[in-house]
Amino acid sequence: MAVTMALGVMAGCGADKGAAEEGNGGAVKETVLKIAFNQSENHPQYKALAAFGEKLKEETAGAYSLEIAPNALLGDQRATAELVQSGTIAMAVVGNPIVENFNKEFAVIGLPYIYDSLDHQKEVFTSGVLDELFASTEANGFFVAGSFTAGSRNVYTDKPIETPEDLAGYKVRVMESDTMVKMLDLMGGVGTPMGQGEVYTAVQQGVLEGGENNEVTYADLKHYEIAPYFSYTQHLMVPDLIIINDDIYNGMTAENKEIFDNLMNETIINEFEVWNESVEAAKAIAVENGATFVDVNIKPFQENVKPLHDEVTAASEGAKAIYEAIRGLVK
Ligand code: GCU
Question: Is 217 touching ligand 1 by the criterion CB < 6 Å?
Fold first, then answer.
């Protein structure tokens, strides 16, 4: 059977003819979903997305495929969220704080110390308790299709950070939201919001004393060169959200939506499986390059950020309900 492929030039061009027309003598319209990603091809999320793309193409009989634009080629996460909103690109992976700027209730799922472990977070991401929240940004032109783990985030700077006092006067870069700034301030330092790509130079030039991130990004961006002490404050396990333009998703046939959704769920679980291996590899690279990993008693930090839990959950009934649902899943 000859199937002619009509190539969608831009993400989401044209309606989804899908597999339904195949065999009808009609052409299968191929839609390339372009997804912005601010990490490298080595990142576990990149690998998970690449596998997702291959299966999507296969299972939709060529109607949908994925094109990943890694290394922040399309801009920082804030800029790429806007590209998805306008439908210029179909999808992006953005840190939770970016989406928090569209709906404050997202702050709950990115609160410091809200998840007890990766297993707890996996339960939260796969149990459906976040479905309503994830659909809530539809009025903004996009919604959240799923969320990846990015492990735990920890502070790195020019000295070990073992107590909140150690952070006094230290300007530490945080992701761009009010909650992130308040969190770092409560932890004892000075939260300074900026995009990930500017951190290396800012620390090198003394504009910042350090950053906070997971081991994978710390090693991938060679931040050990400018901030060699990585202290296990474990203050965040912030979700990375996979966002998709509403119209593009809604242009899919019911059958293709189901394929997309099922593959997305599978991908989320797979990424959890490979995360720890990536952490070990990243740590080895950082240590080889002179980094020191410091164990920390997290209790004082946990105590310090409690007012932020109260503030964020008191903001709305919805926020409180999400908080309780997440804590209710602790085993
Ligand atoms: C992590 C996270 C990214 C985020 C980055 C950051 O690497 O996975 O989504 O962009 O941190 O600190 O900005």
Answer: yes
Q: Which atom of ligand 1 is nearest the CA belonging to 77?
A: 10
pLDDT digits (tens, 9 = 90+) for 242-292: 999 999 999 999 999 999 999 999 999 999 999 999 999 999 999 999 999
Same domain (yes/no): 228, 247:
no
The domain that holds 135 is classified in CATH as: 3.40.190.170
DSSP 284: H
Q: Do 211 and 322 belong to one domain?
A: yes
Q: What is the ipTM metric for this complex?
A: 0.98
Closest CA to 265 of 48, 40, 16: 48
Mutate which of 175, 199, 212, 268 for ligand 1? The one with the most ligand atoms within 8 Å of its CB, which is: 175
From the list 154, 145, 123, 124, the residue with the least C-alpha distance to 216 is 154
The residues, any chain, with a CB within 8 Å of residue 108's CB and separated by 6 or more, are: 114, 312, 313, 319, 322, 323, 326
> Cα of 299 to ligand 1 centre, how many Å?
24
Q: Which domain holds residue 90?
A: 5-95+120-148+240-273
